[in-house]
Amino acid sequence: MGEVLHSAPRFLTPEGLCAALVAALGDKVVAAKEEFGEVVITVARGAIVETLRTLRDGHEYQQLMEIAGADYPSRAERFEVVYMLLSVTKNSRIMVKVCAAEDTPVPTVTGLWPVAGWLEREVFDMYGVVFAGNTDLRRILTDYGFEGHPFRKDFPLTGYVELRYSEEDKRVVYEPVELAQDLRSFDFMSPWEGADYVLPGDEKAAVPPPAPAPVATAPVTGGAPKADVPKTTDKPADTGAGAKADKAAAKKVDAGAGATKPKRAPAKKSRAEAAPEPTESRPARKPRSKKAGNEGGQGPAPEGS
Fold first, then answer.
1. Is residue 100 classed exposed, middle or buried when 0-12, 13-18 and 19+ CB atoms within 10 A define those classes?
2. What pLDDT does 152 receive?
3. Exposure of 65 by Cβ count < 10 A (0-12 exposed, 13-18 middle, 19+ buried)?
4. Average pLDDT over residues 204-213
5. Which of 37-51, 144-158, 171-185 shows the lowest per-residue confidence on average (mean pLDDT)?
6. Which of 150, 183, 242, 254 is such that its CA lies 20 to 30 A from the CA of 193?
7. β-bridge mates for residue 83, sequence order
8. At what angle do helices 48-58 and 17-25 cross, to 10 degrees?
9. Which domain holds residue 26?
């Protein structure tokens, strides 16, 4: 696959950026790494405000693009809060992480970016992380009476309650979830390519016996095979040549030479030669008498009639 060139890269990670940021943050850094072309820095939970202020004012990461959460139930501090920063002047992005448990609040950063209030509410709603100092920490995506946090790994896929509109109460009511059937587990195996288990109904099919293996036998012949002998013409009779053939060929030549040529069709005569002889001129007709022409009250006959 060829390299795709753009007028400007999606984001830029200068060489040595991770080391420079770690040196600037000092003991606030818990861990740092660079993977997939991005710098990821994990800092102490109580130092998140000072860390983000240093990155904003001292390293030109002006914008807070997103605050996301992640849940790792096997850890003592199961939640991670991820802050994604963007430098519009350097076209660079970095991620800053802090860890938290269910009962350990994370300091709010609404004093640095007011937009963080909405983003922290989303993390609180989906994961249950509490942000200390946020004066409006309410649910933002789920309903007011919703119980639990949907993005936690231990939250059931169906939830705890379901809602419907009740014609009797004329309002929306909440009821425990009742499923018509249990959730099925999918193995994503194709039955056409062959599965590791017997499909329902296949156990009733009778397995046909295996076909007997073909036995190779030698062909039956009348004796030893004859070797291919090249055909040769040792005498004139083998090719059809000879005195009789020469005499017959000479007769055909003489007969063709003495044959009369076919008569040609007579040439067409010219138009002048093909014209017939002129006939005698017709005698002029006698003029009609005036008496005959005036009979019946008619006037004189016109000229040329």
1. buried
2. 94
3. middle
4. 77
5. 171-185
6. 183
7. 67, 96
8. 130
9. 17-116
The torsion defined by the Cα of 166, 170, 176 and 180, in degrees rounded to 10, comes to 10
Model pTM score: 0.56
Q: Can you tell me the distance from the alpha carbon of 243 to that of 240, in angstroms, rounded to the nearest whole number? A: 10
| Residue 301 pLDDT greater than 50, yes or no | yes
Q: Please check whether residue 75 lies inside any domain of the structure.
A: yes
CA–CA separation, 145 and 142 (whole Å)? 8
Residue 63 within a domain: yes
**Which of 39-43, 46-50, 247-251 shows the lowest per-residue confidence on average (mean pLDDT)?**
247-251
Give the residue from 76, 11, 68, 24 showing the smallest Cα distance to 50: 24
Count: domains in the chain? 1
The token pair that represents 165 in the structure block:
């509109």
192: number of CA atoms within 13 Å, CB side? 0
| Residue 153 vs residue 9, higher pLDDT | 153
